[in-house]
Amino acid sequence: MKIISGTGHRVLAEQIAAAAGADLCDVDITRFPDGEVFVKIVENVRGDDLFIVQSVSVNPNEYLMELLIMIDAAKRASADRITAVLPFYGYARQDRKDQPRVPITAKLVANLLVAAGADRILCVDLHAQQIQGFFDIPVDHLYASPVIVKYLRSRDLDDLVVVSPDAGGLKMADAYSKLLDAGIALVGKQRKSATDVEANHLVGDVKGRNTLLVDDMTSTAGTLTAAAKLLEKAGAKSIRAAVSHSLLTEQGIDRLKGSPICELVTTDTVPQREWTSFKVTVLSVADTLAEAICRIHNDQSVSSLFRV
What we know:
This protein is of the alpha/beta class and 308 residues long. It has 8 helices and 14 strands.
């Protein structure tokens, strides 16, 4: 078993390799003067079970191309099996045609990964469960919820209500509510643009209760902050948010500062910036991914990793 990493999130890759008891193999990744990516796997990987860690976030075009080229390099170097480890699966938002003449980029990325030579995919909290069906190769889909729930239980939040900030996240909210033995509520929203959201109705009782907004990702925090304002208006005692992937922009940070959300709980599936003016708790998924990698290598079940 060998692990290599792109430049998408090398810190996490190093933590995964350390937790898995393996060395992170050297890879030379540079750019030609015109911006083309050059990759050379420094160590011999012939006949190895190779895991390539790359989080396709922040600069998704660059990191996706890096990943595809690394997979191709590994395939031509005669690696026995190539597993693409994507803590964050980029381009997952577009998973269906919801209007005329738009692409399904989640499927396009799946096709590219398979065409490049990936034999298996390991990922965390896909934007939509059905993306697994876009692949004709095995997909191990892990969840950040065991890590997040363990932390939330330590906070002893009594009389808790888990809130879905939109209808699409209701299934995730239901899973969290069962794990935390909490109530459940739903916020209805209307998206005006890619960055602006209007929350216009709430289903469920949150008055005088601790609330937890859950979502798979946030970037501009429009959905979270709009839902939080509605919860505040409904008399919620406290408002927290838990997201698997925090891709916050400057606009998102400013929105969180001015919102009634008192804490954002997230994971390190994507690189995190320094926080000074807003309470953010970043939990690590390195141990979970390392355990999954070891189990895949040893042909063992990974289903036990879903337990809290």
